[in-house]
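Lecture notes, structural biology module. Today: joint structure prediction for complexes of two components.
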Amino acid sequence: MEPSSGGGGTTFQPLVVLELASTTPEEAVGWLLSRIRERQQNGGAELLVEQLSLGAAEGGEKNNQNLFVVGASWQRLLHGAEESGLFKEYSDGSMRGFTCANKHKFKGFTGSGDGFLSMAECQYIIKHQLEALRAKEETHVPGFSQAKLYPGKSIIRRLQSKGILVQMFPLHDKEELKRLSFSWYQRVRLSLQPLDAIRDYFGEGQALYFGFLEYFTIALLPMAVLGVPYYLFDWEDYDKYVLLAVFNLVWCTVLLEVWKRYSAALAYHWGTLSRKKAFEEPRPGFHGVLGLNPVTGREEPVFPSVSRQLRIYLVSLPFVLLCLYLSLYVMMIYFQLEGWVLSVHDEGPTLWTEVLTYIPSVVYAVVIEAMNLAYRYAAEFLTEWENHRRESSYQNHLVLKVLVFNFFNCFASLFYIAFVMQDMLLLRQSLATLLITSQILNQLMEAFLPYWLQRRRNKKMIRKVLKRRAIEEKELPLAEQVRLEADMSTYLGTFDDYLELFLLFGYVSLFSCIFPLAAVLVVLNNITEVYSDAFKMCKLFKRPFADPAGNIGVWQLAFETISVIAVVTNCALIGMSPQVKVYFPESATQLILWTVTAEHLLLGFKFILAFLIPDVPKHIRVKLARIEFESLEALKKKVKHLLMHFKLNRKASEA
Amino acid sequence: MEPSSGGGGTTFQPLVVLELASTTPEEAVGWLLSRIRERQQNGGAELLVEQLSLGAAEGGEKNNQNLFVVGASWQRLLHGAEESGLFKEYSDGSMRGFTCANKHKFKGFTGSGDGFLSMAECQYIIKHQLEALRAKEETHVPGFSQAKLYPGKSIIRRLQSKGILVQMFPLHDKEELKRLSFSWYQRVRLSLQPLDAIRDYFGEGQALYFGFLEYFTIALLPMAVLGVPYYLFDWEDYDKYVLLAVFNLVWCTVLLEVWKRYSAALAYHWGTLSRKKAFEEPRPGFHGVLGLNPVTGREEPVFPSVSRQLRIYLVSLPFVLLCLYLSLYVMMIYFQLEGWVLSVHDEGPTLWTEVLTYIPSVVYAVVIEAMNLAYRYAAEFLTEWENHRRESSYQNHLVLKVLVFNFFNCFASLFYIAFVMQDMLLLRQSLATLLITSQILNQLMEAFLPYWLQRRRNKKMIRKVLKRRAIEEKELPLAEQVRLEADMSTYLGTFDDYLELFLLFGYVSLFSCIFPLAAVLVVLNNITEVYSDAFKMCKLFKRPFADPAGNIGVWQLAFETISVIAVVTNCALIGMSPQVKVYFPESATQLILWTVTAEHLLLGFKFILAFLIPDVPKHIRVKLARIEFESLEALKKKVKHLLMHFKLNRKASEA
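The predicted structure, tokenised, for the full assembly:
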């Protein structure tokens, strides 16, 4: 990162863009800018900020003039790094919280500021500092009497929730992005993703997602290799799946345990493993009546937790149950359709009726996807309405709602076919149709739809992009770059990406013994997913702020829940297989009892295993313990020092 | 607590007694005393210590002259309180880590030292300070060339492991003890135990045990009340237990969740909930060859973790399995005996053969207890030999070994009778015999055996005690008190007490629907347990050091495991009951499938419940968050202050 006096007329390196509503009065703009520029001891953010001179709008369109770029001095960024608790590599190779006092002991610190903090880190610092900008005596935003402010509360959050601050996003780094996209997806190769480079550009949260995607794909390879011959040579002999089911059982347990350790190693390497969570601000959408915050003792909007509980249990829960019932109803319609089609085919089988038999499955798969999508919006609306105070609580409730419904919606029919109808041929066909249809739809929705929408929305912009591509060497003026990026879609986080992986993991771990090609399909899907995700991250979306995540969060729990269900399902499938049934020719009861006993033992074993395997590899635990020990020693030395002073002083005063 | 110049010739309040081996050379004694007395800045403990003048031994016996009493100045105790991270009540009613800088802001601090720190706290501080006494340049204990010392390692631990320090224990406070024992067990009453007084005298670990015992007993009352009419009116109608089984199911899940919250409230109230764990020293028994500690980078004895793993998996694990096999073997012998006795009774039933039918169960119960005891010692030996570095790791491995065997040994026969033989009458009889016999044996072993041993061992001492009782008013000289207490048995911690509760919890939650009187028996046992435990803590044992525990540790997990097994067992018992069987007159398979499904749903529900119910009550979470917030604010203020200074300095230097 080099400080440059770019094309748009700024004298500092622009890092973050703020877009205010075009109707914002001068008064509010002036106030905000002065608060951002003010010194820290006066309660400001002490950052550099300038309005973008956009020039005349082309083609007579009226562009929003309220675009601002934010930057900071090198000293300010270092202080910000300390305040936001950034971890950097120390001279001894360990990762430690950066402090200005020890700055020369960190690897790569040269004093001139060149390259020590990556651009993503600088942008994260700026965001952190902007969000930490707090109201003082102001009771409302100047010029907006309804936008109330409370002492000590974040100004930026308030402006966001009131729609005055339209968006805040970090700028892309064209050079860096070109290098990253070249090594990531622009050449076809048999190598791993450049996770460190992804982390440097997009932050740890993104890098962990791509790391998990890659890990999951590689972990699927043995199953895919095992699956192909099964599929090729035993097509009709669908009941020889005991071996695959046992393999599944072990695989999905080991997979997640190893991932936990691998992810801890990655997070340690990136300095986010032992990083402490900051005190969480209320999320922008939170609202309430004025009351006393029991923690800070200050006056601010509060929302009684009883009301929230009531909303959750009296509205959200019944709504979720209703949706589940609806999903069940649709499933029953599908089975009726399926039965009707089969009867038509049986009456007079022609090529057309043969094709017809596949129609209900495909339609059902499309309906499932549509229901998932619709439910997704409903869940977001409901969770928003539940009015959670903290982002983490909002996320947990949203994830829980979405996961339960998606799981039920996608897998209910498969469970019904497997355990109620016990029709393994239909199960195989259903699974194949569901998997293939959902993959095709997902790829369409994820990569091509945003691309197409973007094209339609700003054809003019695309023309500019093309122009830029044509004159690749020539620098684009800052103002145009900002305008271009401001109109790009916003990347909404890894939620949908993880959700898709979650369902794929479900298909593979629950039923792939019935349809061994599933693993192959998922591997193929994941490989294209890497490319399409990388493409959309680099080309289609605004750059997201780095998210210093130490693990994949609630998704670890979600995947582990699936793996527990997978044990039960695979045991049941084994118990139902003709291969096992021959050992109990007389008594079905005996067979069931043995199956249940085995399943309980396996579940117990799984929990013991999860308990025994440490979540963090030993060499990292030793490193963390060493850092803790050293800080303890330093503290002891300090105490000893103080004690000596204290005693000397006492002696002196006594003498 | 009043500083007193007691009877034994000390000029300070004696708090802790050190007993060195009688053969310790003068040189070593002198060195240790000087290290204890030395100032802190020179690496000493800065405590007061004096040898006890014991006078002529009575009856010509040779008493150990190497008894020392340790105390400290008031200032030293306050510093020690800060160093050991003691939590005290702050002026605003919250619990905070004590610091000398803020001492006047803590409730009850008067400056004179009277009553602010309880005697148990002072003793804990002294212990902490003694254990933090570290070797400097010494390579071995003077006079003991084989007792090697390593810089920075605890001297006291080394002396303990080499047998030079025979024991270290805190002194009883006779006045306090009299008050405590009066309010605790010396009057029969219908009130709760004085948990706060127990905590003040014995520490948080003890108080939590007694709190759990009381909680468990009260929680059993509804079951006991429900059980009596069941037992009285339906004696032979043993299959009407579905209601009880369902009650059991709910009860054992709710019980532990509520306890977790109650225990958190207690621990918060006592200031141990958010207290951080200190850096753990190697346990006294740990040994190894000289190597580099990867954490501290210092030279000290290390033991490769591979060797430990080998010992665990190649020796301990096979040994445990062998013991389990042995237990199974004994069980089979019991069943043969049982069968033989029944056949004798059936051939010619007389009163004698009637009595004879109870003999095998009683004998088996006694054998189980004996095997548990023998195994307990073996497990301790093995775990010691595994050479764990840290006390917590040693404890976990010991608890795991003992729990698995005891659970198997006690419950294997019951599971066999219930699910293989399916003989509910025999199950009821077996359960009753096991429970009653083990309770009688336990009470004997726990209270009367130590009492009787103590009597035998020091009849002379008992005579003194009697003399003391006769002249209750007159103060016993310190030297005699110390000698008396040094000869008392050492209290070995709450391990055996929790183990007993664990087994009782198992009997009740697993099978009490078959034998509803079990809850009544356990309640009666627990009530006598409170009295006998209180009696032995106060009268029979040396005072233990306070253990600042924040929860019941690994036992919470152990009880939760039982409650999971209880869900499975109760579901199976319900499925086997004739009441349920009538609903599935045709198909046993249907019945089993329904039972299994219900069981899985219940298990899932249980996990969701455990996940949803917060472990710490909300009002305590708010208080903790407030303290965290305030310390964060204080830090911010400090940083702001520093920043201002820094800028002023820069300005000054620039000007």
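Point to remember: The mean pLDDT of chain A is 83.
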